[in-house]
Write a structure and sequence with these properties.
The chain is mainly beta. The protein is 14% helix and 44% strand. A hairpin with a 2-residue loop joins β8 and β9. The longest helix has 13 residues. The N terminus is likely disordered.
């Protein structure tokens, strides 16, 4: 009887059930918290999801970016097309060349909060490449699976630099997938 009890105790102690925990299986979605987001992330995919469910990758693999979450609550993100235009004369670019350089590029920084129950992260924008977003909050649905973080931008109207991928006024969701480094 002692042997049976000992085997049961060992089995129970070894199982996560004894501590009310469940082990995360490989490929399972993890809970999102400030702690799980901390670190540096590199952009691996930018997708547009149309209302009918079709997914497009407007930049294909021609994308680069970095997202950083700090323990003090700070955050920074920058991303864009890898193959953006380079002016012929770097010290005196034309207006057209400048416009091409910044096309398909974005950057902002500030602080962040996480709503774990809703699997959302909120970026409180303090500074940005686009001055009109300073002082705004950017809420993203967040999914964390292994070393991949997907942030989904709520559906909004198609914006000018994606005109080849959606119709003016069409609502699209943008999804950016990041890999932890």
């Amino acid at each position: 009887m002692k042997k049976v009890l000992m085997i049961l105790l060992i089995a129970l102690a070894a199982s996560s059930v004894a501590f009310g925990q469940t082990k995360m299986s490989k490929g399972a979605v993890e809970p999102v918290s400030k702690k799980t987001l901390l670190g540096t992330w590199h952009l691996v995919r930018f997708e547009l999801v149309r209302a009918d469910g079709r997914v497009q990758e407007p930049f294909g693999t021609d994308i680069s970016g970095m997202l950083v979450y700090l323990a003090d609550g700070g955050m920074s993100v920058v991303w864009g097309r890898k193959s953006r235009s380079v002016p012929k004369n770097l010290s005196n670019p034309t207006a057209v060349e400048l416009a091409k350089m910044v096309e398909n590029f974005d950057a902002y920084w500030g602080t962040f909060d996480v709503n774990s129950e809703r699997s959302q992260v909120v970026h409180h924008v303090k500074g940005a490449f686009e001055p009109n977003v300073v002082g705004t909050d950017r809420t993203r649905s967040a999914t964390l699976k292994n070393d991949l973080l997907t942030l989904a931008v709520p559906p909004s109207e198609c914006w000018w630099d994606l005109a080849n991928y959606c119709a003016p006024g069409e609502k699209i969701e943008a999804r950016l997938t990041w890999r932890r480094r």
